[in-house]
């Protein structure tokens, strides 16, 4: 079942004297329950694409639909409600509130939705178990490792059960062990909990955990890979081959 439809979107920055086309007539769909990675070199338009889908940025032309609703038309309270109820965000730099414990950071979105305390407690407990962070719920961000902070941030993003989870370079600030742990949790959330995840990444290793990879070049789709029955190592090698075709080298993939 189609969850997300990106339909012929374009995004320009600047003015008439200095106009940059960041996204150029780009279209694709994401099915419910998919784990999709978006890859491309710096300046390819992948983060702009994520920002347009997340409504942080507005498209210049075209339309974006989530569950059939044209999100490019949303304004004011309807836009705020859409972001709060249908999207989950995971950022590279965690964006946790330093004065709140992990439990309080995760539960904040549910509190804003005025959920009952018992329901909040049960939801936080469940998501903490899924992400392996039960032991840090009473800790503050300064008491956690980078990997723990990112898993807390991920818990915050999914605790409201959003229709779509958007992750922007989620492993960018993590060491390799923490990255693998986070990506394995993403796979678990996708396969076992049915979470639909779209992840922007420079990193071929991270992308190899996804079921599908869309490669962006100069604001357009350059290529697309589906994992199919391949193991992760084989899929990683296929991703690296496309990176080479993109004109990059191994350094661009990290």
Q: What do you see in this structure?
A:
The protein has helices at 46-53, 76-86, 102-112, 117-131, 146-158, 176-193, 204-207, 232-245, and strands spanning 2-15, 18-31, 35-39, 61-66, 69-70, 87-90, 164-168, 197-200, 212-217, 220-226. It has 254 residues and is α/β, with parallel strands linked by helices. The protein has a single domain (2-95, 166-253), classed as Rossmann fold, CATH 3.40.50. The strands form 2 sheets. It has a 6-stranded mixed β-sheet, with helices on both faces. The protein has a 4-stranded antiparallel β-sheet with strand order 2-1-4-5, covered by helices on one side. The longest helix has 18 residues, at 176-193. The radius of gyration is 18 Å and the shape is globular.
Mean pLDDT: 93
Major sheet size, sense and barrel closure: 6 strands, mixed
Number of alpha- plus pi-helical segments = 8
CATH architecture assignment: 3-Layer(aba) Sandwich
Distance between the termini: 33 Å
Structural class, by secondary structure, is alpha/beta
Task: Enumerate the strands of the largest sheet in spatial order, edge to edge or round the barrel.
Answer: 6-7-8-3-9-10
Query: How many β-strand runs?
Result: 10
Q: Enter the CATH topology name.
A: Rossmann fold
Let me know the CATH homologous superfamily.
P-loop containing nucleotide triphosphate hydrolases
Pattern of helices and strands: EEEHEEHEHHHEHEHEEH
How big a fraction of the residues is strand?
25-35%
Radius of gyration (CA) equals: 18 Å
Name of the level-1 CATH class: Alpha Beta
